[in-house]
Amino acid sequence: MLKYLENFLQAMRPAFSRQETFVWFVIVFVGFLVRNDTLGVSSIVRALSLVPESYTCLLHFFHSTAWTVEGLMVLWWEWLAARKVAYQVGDRVVLVGDHTKTPKDGRKMPAVTTLHQDSETSGKPSFFRGHHWGCVAIVVQACDRFFATPLWASIQEGLAKLAVDDAGQPKTTRIVQMAQQVARVMGRSAYVVLDAYFAVGPVFQTAAEQLCGNEPLVHILTRAKKNVVAYCPAQTPKKRKRGRRKKYGQKLKLMKLFDSKAKATSFKPPKPSHTNGRNPFVTSYSICSGNPPKGCSVSSWSTAPEGKWS
């Protein structure tokens, strides 16, 4: 175990431009492992029985210009990619992304903003002051168990106070760009698993911008919202009339369309393209989702002869 940790710490050495700073990094790393409380820098001093004067040196380490968090994270991602511990589906690794909100009591802490709590727990306040974090992790496998290893966490709101360049960028697309940067550094394409909050058009458009060969660098896997709708392609009128042409056709509520046949009686699917006795047949139908610039997306579903939708 000690040899393993030593190899890991040596792999992080290029992130520090000074040897003394790297030594303090090793002290902080060991302090985080053995400390018994979470009271800041003082917990590291108590855990390692350091002299009181080392408290100021530890504060200087966290504000040092001899290293950057971004450079350390890149080495961490490369080290994980070299260990080949990531769970893969085909030739793609699996990433997990989500948001989390942490309350803060400090009055002058940077990037603290008023947040709305979406949790259904009645004991939590509806609004509070705190940080809104966006996190990306990679799924690793050990024997028959799976774990999410953290890769990146950054504040998503209140960035205007920090003078960040992407302060006006939506929180949904910022998670996708974080996953794209991780996949690019690791040199692997990835699946990104997100919840229904990210099932919006800009997320999929951002994921399609960066390619790895002929395919997107990251594929988004998320649950569709219950209120999502789609549209059939607009039919071209036989006789041109005044006004703008229709962009959308019949409106379809996908929750009702794919739930069951009883709930989808308002929509009649086209005739099946193939039938084989009692075997299920597959029917594809083109629908428009959102406001696509060109063409329409294609959705497909399968039905069994008994009339059950799946």
Mean pLDDT: 80
What global shape is seen? elongated
What is the terminal-to-terminal distance?
Answer: 49 Å
Number of domains: 3
Number of strands: 13
Structural class, judged by helices and strands? alpha+beta
Q: What order do the SSEs take from the amino end to the carboxyl end, as H and E?
A: HHHHHEEEEEHEHEEEEEHEE
In which range does the helix fraction lie?
A: 25-40%
Count of helices?
8
User: Which ranges are low-confidence, i.e. pLDDT below 50, for 5 or more consecutive residues?
Assistant: 262-267, 269-310
> How would a crystallographer describe the biggest sheet?
7 strands, mixed
Strand content: 25-35%
Rg over CA atoms: 26 Å
Summary keywords:
single chain, 310 residues, seven-stranded mixed β-sheet, 8 helices
Fold topology:
Layout (H helix, E strand, L loop, with lengths): L1 H10 L7 H16 L6 H8 L5 H9 L6 H15 L4 E2 L2 E12 L9 E4 L10 E16 L2 E11 L15 H16 L3 E4 L7 H7 L3 E2 L2 E2 L1 E4 L7 E5 L14 E6 H6 L21 E6 L11 E6 L7
Parallel strand pairs: 2-6, 6-9
Antiparallel strand pairs: 1-2, 2-4, 3-4, 4-5, 7-8, 10-11, 12-13
Helix pairs in contact: 2-3, 6-7
